[in-house]
Sequence to fold (705 residues):
Amino acid sequence: MKRKLVLSEALERLSPPIPADFEQNTKRMLNDIALRKEETVVKTKISIGLAAAITLLLLTAGIALALTFSSQVTEFFGKLYGNDMRTWLEKGDVASVNQSFVLDGVEFTLDEVIYCENGLYGVGTIRPQEGSSAVIIPEDHNPDEPFGYDKIGEGGTPEKAPAGAPSIADAARERNGKLLVVRALPDQIGVDGGEMASPESIGYTLTPQRDGSIHFSFEMSDANAVEKGQKYTIKMWASVCEMTLDGQTLEDTRHGENWTVEITPEPISEVSPAALEPAAPAQTSQTETVVPETAQTGTLPAGLAAELNLGDIDQVIKLQTALQGLGYLATVSHTYGEDTMKAVADFQKDNGLLSDGIAGHSTQELLYSGNAKPASNPLPELEEGAGVIEGPDKSQVQLLHWFDTVKPSVKEGQTCLVFDPASKRSWTLTFTSLDRHADLEPLTLRDTRIMNAAFGNKATWTPKPVYVKLPDGRWTLAVTNNTPQSSGSITGNGFDGYLCVHFLRDMAEAQKNTPEYGVANQTVIRDAWLDLTGETYAEIARQP
Amino acid sequence: MVDKAAFTLQSQEMLPALYRMCMNILRSDADAQDAVQQCLLKGWAHRADVSQDRLRPWLMRIAVNECRNIQRYRKRVYPAPAPEPSRPFYPPDADLWELSEAIDRMDQRLRVPLLLKYRENYTEKEIAAVLRVPVSTVKNRLYSARRVLQKSLADLEVAFE
Fold:
């Protein structure tokens, strides 16, 4: 008998009590501010009521809001904090800035800003001036770290440099240039000639790029409130400080200056994304034509719009194959899922296109032109013989029945090893659901790649006979495919969905319940058993 | 528009709940206190934007957003205060260890709606307002949260009420 737990009661006992002194102080604070005579109440632009009404409208009408504009700020912060952030920022006032400032041979460019609900968000680029031999680094990087790699990384996962990559100090020695620690931040914000005010807090990032430039971003809140469409001024702060090759900053060289940027916001949809990636090739002046997605949904992420006909599987395969060839994508999965979007975004970034994950016209044109740049950070080649193991002795392999034996012995979340006798490769799958067959997902990206190698690097529905080592250690014959369906729960495994493994079932039952694909799999498993043992499988006679 | 007295009353009433949620997200007493006070100050300043009956999810939303801000600024902050080491989540009764750990491990996107529903008794519509997501998303996240929780508490029979 299982112990019963009522969630709400348990949570009540679990909750951390509020510290008494804090509660008292805060109550006093609330009383104090309520007693103050007059104070201005700030009116925000979109009230919650309106937002709720829009949500409700969207829900009831079932309209998918296809927002088709793109901006570098929404892209960057969307990547950093997720899609909620992206959607939220899209409500703001965007301004394409493109203004530069030079300090001590370093060019600081503010590319774009968005003002959204009392917050200012911006992105830009810092690079040594043309002809300068200087090497620039963010403040928290050291000269012995790899050049051009972000040691903090998106979401806190540092970018991994390949072994033997030159260090920042190496780069400075090679150029015989100074090592400069740089920073760019907003300092103050002012509205229409009014007083400048400093924000309460500023968050910022400085991300080294492979070409030696630094991408910067900032977010700040609660300086002067800017009304929709209103012009405003940002006072930026740029600073430069020399560093020795062994990592000492030379404080007497520290030098900072303000530069002022006038912002004229424009409606977000009119922003031209023809922007300013550091390593932009000649084609970048083209803008991406983005056509809103209409009827097609299926496995497509919301808001995905493309001239690529996503229902045309050949086009998707062509796209994925090209991306795979350039090292951006692990699997040709036949569906335009999250992995593909990310690969397209990476491709666009490395090739100086607007990085939005949408395979529009100019993206496809460049991708198929033969002039596309391969991934700056390609997936490492799978080594020769990856996943190859001896495998079980043939005599160890049984033909275990799905309903009688296998299904009762496994649980969702458990893993199994799959061995392909044809290629000798093996990979690990996790059970995600158990029905008439098992749905599983590759455990890691490596598992996906080994599996795909075993399938000749093609996604196929053709059942492949394999030996599966069950969690209890027994080996059984089974058949599997490697085509992702629906969407998976493991992220980062390079596999957008789950795949099916079929185990032995009674042919009569398969004919009754799953006359097509189920029977096809049962036929393959019986043929494989004949190949393995030289014996024809004898059907179980069951009482009706 | 919420009047001063109503705001003060309701926000004082909500203090423990706001603190619980911030604590749960941030795992640090100092950060949670900052987030709660920031939330109340912002709420106060913007109280003209909300009606009385929406005050509860509205304040909770500001609190959750404040927590997110704090988490964001943890990446790099200027001027940079040393981040406090986050202390382990509150010490639970021994028989609730498993649950505490399971909730701790849960993705924030699932944990927050789960706690709002089962600890704070928020309706799905209110949770949607807090998280700024559609009600259907809230339903999905709650469903996933229940599944994840039940899965990690295989030895217990969890009543989701």
Remarks:
- Chain A touches chain B through 57 residues (CB under 8 Å).
- The first helix of chain A runs from residue 7 to 14.
- Residues 37-69, 268-307 of chain A have pLDDT under 50 and may be disordered.
